[in-house]
Each structure stands twice: as structure tokens, then as C-alpha cells.
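Please review this one:
***
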Amino acid sequence: MKGFTIELPGELLEILGSEDEARRDAKVAVVLDLVRRGRISRARAAELLDLTLWDLPALLAQYRIPWFDYAPDDLERDVAALRDAERRDA
């Protein structure tokens, strides 16, 4: 495993609680940013963070990262298609 050092002001370290917590938070932030930018999959993020895929949605929600990337236009189109199908079946 490779590593690097990040210099943090003492005030930030106090907020984070400890160096171990700062390391963990930094790793989570980097991994989830890679997810947000589409550079890694959610499954890979779970692996990197030693989480199960079942536990990842809660962490993603804390960072306001959707589990599914659903474009608004796609959602509107699919909802309209479902409504049309429901009307036909009624």
C-alpha cells in the first residue's frame, strides 16, 4: 500500500478528533469524491472502505451522493411511460 502525508491545521485535527479519525475521514472523502465523479464504481468504493455494498448507501446519503444516477429527463420520461401503461391496464 502506498501512502502520503497531508498537513492539517491543529484546529482541523481538533475538530476531527484524532489523527486516526482524520485519516479515515480523508480516505472516505477521496473515495466518495471518486464515486461522485464517476471514476470508480460504488462496489469498488465499498471495497476500498472495507464496507459491504449493503452499508454503502447510508454513507453515500451522508455525503448527498445518490445511489442511482438518474437524469431528470430520463426520470420524467419513465414516469410518463409508467402512467401511460397504468392507464392502458385500467
User: Anything to note?
Assistant: The chain has five helices and no strands.
